[in-house]
Design brief:
This protein is an alpha/beta fold. The chain contains 7 helices and 9 strands. The chain has one domain: TIM Barrel, CATH 3.20.20. Helix 5 links the parallel strand 6 and strand 7. It is globular, with a radius of gyration of 17 Å.
Length: 224
């Protein structure tokens, strides 16, 4: 008789550098130094949006594993629901798993309070049940924020997170362009890339080149 795999009990995954409880803020976090307490010097954070994706998330995970990098994945609830094993693979690899809404509405600031709550809560619950990790960070689609969005994230014990470095990899500007922007990152920066939402082969190739270049400069990658 087949024994089903038990569902993990959802728990928060604390940041690597502190066990301190999270607190709400009035503006989204764009740099690691915006966190309190701040992570160690010479640290940098790679964040990955819009997955999990059946083709590109595994490739991103392989690059991260090759270079022993821990990243932060902002997942879309619908994608998690469709690819639960892949979402669990991300979590089981030790990466931070976070909330990027249920359906990725670019018009999020114009949503009703009811619909906004559904986007955050449904994704929150889906991610927690599938991965066993309770999301403690939230990223708004397109970096669109309003007081209502910030308040809703805080209400559900999630810190709002933006980014400081954006290579616009979603637009597929070319591997060289993505790599150049990423390699220009400085200590304390939060970098944005994507593993979902379209063809992310350029992103995978750029990360393969940018990560060792950043590490060679003495930067250490941390998850949020």
């Amino acid at each position: 008789m087949h024994t089903p795999t038990p569902t993990p009990t959802p728990t928060p995954r604390p940041p690597a550098w502190t066990q301190s409880p999270l607190t709400a803020v009035n503006t989204p976090i764009r740099e690691l130094t915006d966190l309190s307490p701040a992570p160690p010097p010479n640290t940098i954070a790679l964040t990955i949006d819009d997955g999990p994706h059946p083709e590109y998330t595994p490739k991103v995970l392989d690059v991260l594993a090759e270079h022993q990098v821990t990243a932060t994945f902002f997942m879309i609830g619908e994608q998690v629901k469709e690819y639960p094993r892949l979402a669990r693979r991300v979590a089981d690899a030790g990466h931070q798993v976070c909330n990027h809404t249920m359906t990725h509405p670019l018009s999020i600031v114009g949503l009703s309070a009811k619909r906004l709550r559904e986007e955050l809560v449904d994704a929150h619950d889906c991610i927690a049940q599938v991965t066993g990790i309770v999301p403690t960070f939230f990223r708004s689609p397109g970096g669109a924020w309003s007081k209502r969005v910030l308040d809703m994230a805080a209400e559900h014990d999630m810190l709002p997170v933006d980014w400081a470095v954006d290579p616009r990899d979603w637009a597929r500007p070319g591997v060289a362009r993505i790599r150049k922007v990423l390699v220009g990152s400085k200590a304390g920066n939060i970098m944005l890339c994507h593993d979902g939402g379209g063809d992310r082969s350029q992103t995978v190739a750029a990360l393969r080149k940018a990560i060792p270049a950043l590490k060679k400069r003495g930067l250490t990658f941390v998850a949020l």
